[in-house]
Amino acid sequence: MDQESTIPQSDPFSLFEIWFGEAKASEPNDPNAMALATANPQARPSVRMVLLKGHGAHWGSGGGFVFYTNAESRKGEEIRANMHASLLFHWKSLRRQIRIEGPLEEVSSDQADAYFHSRPRGSQIGSAASDQSRPLPDRKLYLDRVASLEERYPEGDIPRPPHWTGFVLSPLAIEFWQDRDYRLHDRRRFTRSSPTEAWSNTLLYP
Ligand SMILES: Cc1cc2nc3c(=O)[nH]c(=O)nc-3n(C[C@H](O)[C@H](O)[C@H](O)COP(=O)(O)O)c2cc1C
């Protein structure tokens, strides 16, 4: 049986890049899909999937992972009350998991505009028309809003609603998990006390 860990002690952003590249090559769809966990002021957690839309050392104060959403949604309200979150990738084709934890900051309005307007026009309209997470008595109401935005802006980009924005999670912990035979799995956890400090790492019992 192989004695060594297969998870190197390299910089966790570089290691993420390698694993993400392998996931893009092997996952059937959405290799950038990740679970985002937030908690409300009563410390009750909630989780949903979002898409990773930026990552690496140039984001946030010491590197980060970026997603975009409606800040008036349930997750948006929870983030406003508690600017900490946790992300999870599970790539089934590779039998790998990555857990990421840390504080959040909002992206600049220029960054939010740039990403919003990089999306297809139909997606811009769909998100501008959505009061995400609010009750919708009848789906027709949503489709009517879509139609009225199409009429109001017959071509080109749609203005980004001010509550449609992005967040950068600056990780204080990143844990890599690799399936191994006989459930003798391999885990390495990288931690740092602030986004500008150096990383430490340790293996964990699986
Ligand atoms: C694969 C996948 C990717 C998704 N990506 C996003 C995303 O990037 N941003 C977003 O706001 N919602 C995304 N959603 C929808 C969310 O999971 C969720 O339904 C929505 O954001 C409302 O969540 P909330 O009520 O907790 O705020 C995605 C759903 C799936 C299944």
UniProtKB/TrEMBL annotation:
It comes from the Bacteria. PROSITE patterns: PYRIDOX_OXIDASE (PS01064). Binds 1 FMN per subunit. Residues 27-149 form the Pyridoxamine 5'-phosphate oxidase N-terminal domain. GO terms for molecular function: pyridoxamine phosphate oxidase activity. InterPro entries: Pyridox_Oxase, Pyridox_Oxase_CS, Pyridox_Oxase_N, Pyridoxamine_oxidase_dimer_C, Split_barrel_FMN-bd. The keyword Transcription regulation does not apply. Pathway: Cofactor metabolism; pyridoxal 5'-phosphate salvage; pyridoxal 5'-phosphate from pyridoxamine 5'-phosphate: step 1/1; Cofactor metabolism; pyridoxal 5'-phosphate salvage; pyridoxal 5'-phosphate from pyridoxine 5'-phosphate: step 1/1. Its EC number is 1.4.3.5. Residues 164-206 form the Pyridoxine 5'-phosphate oxidase dimerisation C-terminal domain. Its cofactor is FMN. Belongs to the pyridoxamine 5'-phosphate oxidase family. Catalyzes the oxidation of either pyridoxine 5'-phosphate (PNP) or pyridoxamine 5'-phosphate (PMP) into pyridoxal 5'-phosphate (PLP). NCBIfam families: pdxH, PRK05679.1. This is Pyridoxine/pyridoxamine 5'-phosphate oxidase. It comes from Qipengyuania psychrotolerans. The gene is pdxH.
